Structure formats: structure tokens, C-alpha cells
Amino acid sequence: MEALSQLMGGFADAVTPLNLLFALIGTLLGTAVGVLPGIGPAMTVALLLPITYVLEPTGAFIMFAGIYYGGMYGGSTTSILLNTPGESSSIMTALEGNLMAKAGRGAAALGTAAIGSFVAGTIGTLLLALVAPAVVTLAVAIGPADYFALALLAFVAVSTVLGASPLRGLASLCIGLFLGLVGTDLLTGQQRFTFAVPQLADGIDVVVVAVALFAVGEALHVASRLRHGPVEVMSSSGSFMTRDDFRRSWKPWLRGTAFGFPFGALPAGGAEIPTFLSYATERRLARHSDFGRGAIEGVAGPEAANNAAAAGVLVPLLTLGLPTSATAAILLAAFQGYGIQPGPTLLTTESSLVWTLIASLFIGNTMLLVLNLPLVGVWVKLLKIPRPYLYAGILMFASLGSYAVNADPLDLVLLLVIGLLGFAMRRFGWPVAPAVIGLILGPVAETNLRRALAISDGDLSALVSSPFSVVVLLVAVLAVVGPPVLRRFRRREAVAV
Amino acid sequence: MSTAAPTPRPTPQPTTQPTTQPTSDHPRTPEPWEVEESPRRPRNNGELALSTLLLLLGVYLVIGTGGITIPGSSNTVGPRFFPYLVGAATIVVGGALAIRVLRGDQGPEEGGEDVDPNAKTSWRAVGIITLAFLAHALLINVIGWPLSVTLMFGAVAWALGSRGVVRPLIAGGIVSVVVWLVFVKALGVTLPGGILLELATGWI
Q1: β-strand A183-184 against A191-192: which pairing, if any?
Q2: Which residues of chain A make contact with B107, given a CB cutoff of 8 A?
Q3: Tens-place pLDDT, residues A378-387
Q4: CB contact (8 A) between residue A426 and residue B110
Q5: CA geometry: angle B170, B176, B177, nearest 5 deg
Q6: What is the pTM of this model?
Q7: Distance from B32 to chain A by nearest Cα, in Å?
């Protein structure tokens, strides 16, 4: 129960008036930006990074805790109230949520989403606090070969398991790995692929790439196929959750949390799979099914799964330094911006920072519950922003964030070039998250691979010398080979029936 | 390559034989997020070009890696090892994807709240935004961030169909000056303000 006492210490640090103010600002900004259509959680965090440049680490991470959960929650409000498909992790919430709003039960849908987020976020953060120290004790013993295996697993999981087209995920990963190679080799100090441009010797900044792929790429993609005509925002009115709604919601909340957290915490993380599983489960379990006509279970479950996964993703991030979602990769970049390298030692070297961060997640999550329902009117107004202004504004903040990193106009040109790449990738269905993961984890993978091989004097069998690395590599192979095989197996079954 | 006739998306017929292309058809029941069919487009030359570029990137990586100096102290796993790996992987992935695309495979275009999958591509909007952003990048150190970003804001809003350019320019101007004041004067971020604004706010 040492974790609990340290968590209490975290609370003591987080509950100063100034830090509470940071948490409040983070939560509000995160939700407001997250609500804006076209802006997913990853873009929210990337665009809001510059705000924290000037804060000292504790304040910055308290704010980030609010931005992170706020961005997640904002996305679901958008998907319930806009009758158009949005980011992948809130599509499941949107299915029944839209229908409920259409049937005049928008307030109940938003209510079950808000309370479900709170329940899942609280349980998820509590699990994070309990699991993280245990993972760290295991992780301290693992060597470079094991790390390389973990990075490899994260690569294949993010590229092949999450997207619709595994090969396109790998293509995106390759782009990210290349961008990660640009710069000075960490171990020998040699310049690689810098095209003799001095600014590239330090490597390409993760913030620039993330903002380019997410914000600029998205703005260009939307511009190419903008939905014209008036924006249809559905009514958020109607009665709040009834007793019956609560009775129908609480089990899906808990089941959604049970799906979300483990999936988020595994290196094959991400919120898409658990939200889908939760939706499918609720659909199957619903007895007097009004699925397809706006079933509250279909909002409660996936929304809880989404938020629990968001908490779960922080387990590998804080304990291993392993980002498993694009949002986590950007958070990792923020850590590195402060010279903090997440990994097994983080919990000992930056103990108070980590526990303050975790305590702030609880605080931000509670603030979300208190603030969001009364503020629904504001969010609805945000949804109605004229689209030309919205996307012009996104580009304005993209410019601000990227220029502020190095105060170099070259970064803006780089931003545009990578943004155009992001546009092309979106157009052809190449997921962008693997590129961000490849960029940030590529150097980690390389360093550990070379360390492992240096210890073994170039003997490749060193990579499979520990049971841990063998298991992880096997899982990685399964992640590549499994889905196609499963699909074919299912097809046979379908043929047999 | 007209011989590679794009195979129409097969309807789930019970007689469909398993093929070696796992992702090119969906005989399983479509997941809810896939229900919305994207409009049928002809073979995707754009994606073919992008995958070929990826293949070329891989070739460049392998060739370029040979030019990285290996310091004498380094052993077998020097600075060239990982780039060779990445280069080889990039060639394989780029090549495989190019072949897939040639056979008529298409990825699901990314959706979004404001994306109309049935709209015709507006290259005009993409072009104007690209130029406006480039101009903004070149002008930022000359006329300052607020002014250059306001011009970009106006051009982008206009390209996306806002009524007139005066209102976007005014809106962009107000927002950019407020943002500049907040970020530079309150948060201390480095951002050139332009001569006028810096003189006017020198007392803060």
C-alpha cells in the first residue's frame, strides 16, 4: 500500500490553489479544443503543447493531465451531437448517441457519457496507480534486448492491429522510422540523412511532425472535401438520465472499463478495439433491445471503454517509456522537452512529479464531471463555428506551436511539407499514428538493439536470449500473422454455414 | 496496366473462395464503421505514386547509409546497421503496397466530422492553403507573426468558402494579436511581433 501513501503525497502537491488553477485551465482548454470537430485527442494535445512551454514541469504536467482527459471527453460530445462520423475511438459512442439525440434524448446520452467517463477514468486512474509500481519492479530487471522486443511489439501492434489495412500501417511506420533517423546518431555522433542542413543535425522535432501530420494534414484533407452547407448540431435537450437510465448504464460502465483498461495498458494499446468490443458486448447482452433506435447501453459502454483505455495507455508510458497511441507519443515528447526520460527509473527519480500527475488525473476527471454538463451550451456553440474559420484557426495554432519550438521559419516549411504528406496519407487511408510512434520509438529501438548486440559482440541470438524477449517477440509475430489468418478462418466458417 | 482490371468489391456470396488477398475484400460481416461505402474511384494513381515514392525512399536509405562515416572505435553494430534495416523494410513495404494498389486495392479514406466523402476533391482549396502557408512561413521574420498569420487566415478562410475576405481578415487580425499578446507578453514564448506591434507594446 506504499502506492496509496505516495498517491496521497501527490494529492498534497496537486491541491495547491495554483496547481488547481492549472488543472482547471487544462481541463477547460482540453475539452473546448477536443469538442471542436476535426480535432481528435492527439491533435488537441499537440496543439496545446506550446501553452506549457513556459511552465515548470509540475505545472505543465498537471495541465496536461486535464488536457488529456478533457480532449478524450470532448471528442465524445462531438460525436454524439454531430451526425457525421468522427475519430475512430468515438465512432462507437456516436452510433447510438446520434440516435438518442435524434430521438430527443440528447441530454441523457451526454449524461451517461459524462458519468461513464468519470467512472471509467476514476477506476482506470486508480488501477494505474496500483499497477505502475508493480510494472516498474518487473521492468527494472529487463535488458536492452527486452526493450528492443517491446519497441518492436509496439511498432507492429500500432501499425497492423489497429488500422483497416496492415500494409498501409507499416508504410506509415517506415516513414516515421526514416524521420527518426534524420539527425545525429546518439551513440557515435555521426550525422545521418541531414542533407547538409545544419538545423537537421538535431533531428526533426516530434512536435513539428505531430502537428504537421495531425493538424496541417487534417486541415488540408478537410479542405479537399469540405462538407458544405449549414452545420447540423443535434439537440442536447430532453430530460436528464432517469432512474431507469442509471439502472441500464451502470453495468455497461463497469464492463466498458474492464475492456478498456487492459487493452490500453498492453503495448498493443489504443481505444478502438475496446470500444468496439464493448459495443458488441452490450448489443449482445441487451435483452429488450432498442439497439438501432438509440440504446443508452451503446453509449455508456464504449464511452467508458474509451476513457479507461486512455488511463491504461499511461501504464506503459510512465513505467517503460513506451507510447502505444499517438496521444501518448506526444505526451512522451512533452516529457522529453523537459529533459525527463520516462522509463523504469522515472518512478524513483521523478517520484513526486509522477504521483502529482496521477493525482491530477483524478482531479481533472472530477472537474470534467462537474463542469461538462452545465457547459453543454458552450460546447454546442463551439460545434457551430463556421468551418472556414475553424480550419484557418487550426493552421494558425499549428504555426504558433511549431515556430515556438525553435523560432526558425524552416520548421514552418517542414511543417507544410510533412503536412502535405499527412494529407496524402489520409487520402489513401494510411493511418498517421504509426508514423508518430515510429519517429519517437525508432531511436529508442535502435539504441537498445545496438546495446544488446554490442554486449553479445554482434551475435544475433542475444535478441532471443531471455524468456521475456522471446514471449514479446512471439506476440509481435502473432500480431502480424494473426489477423489475416483469423480472417481467413472466419471466412471458412462463413462458407461452411 | 489496363490488364489489371480493378476487381469490383465482392458482395458476400457464400461461394466466395478464400483468396490470397486478405484485405482486398470483406466477406465477413462489415464492422459498423465500415458500413459507409466510399464512392468507387478508378485505380488510384495517386496512391501508386506515393507507394513508389516510399520504395524510392527505401532505395535512397540503403544507398545513403553507405555514405555514413563509421568511426574507428565502432564495432559491427555501428551507425549504419539500423538505417540498413529500415531501408530494407521500406523497400519491401513500398514494393508490396505498390503491387497491391496496381491490383486495384484501395485503402479506406480517412473520415472526419467535416469530410464529405462524396464531395469532389477541391484542388483549388488545397493549392491556395499550401501557397498561403508557404507565404506565411517566408514572411514571418519580415512582417512578424500576427500580420503574416492574419494574411494566411484570410486566404485559408476565403479558400474554404467564407463570405468575402474582409471579415476573415478582421477576425484573424483580432485573434492573432490577442494570441500574440497572451503568448509573448504573458507566457514568454518567442514569436516575432513585427515592428509596429512591438513598438506599441514595448511598455508591457
Answers
A1: antiparallel
A2: 164-165, 168, 428-430
A3: 888 888 889 9
A4: yes
A5: 90
A6: 0.86
A7: 8
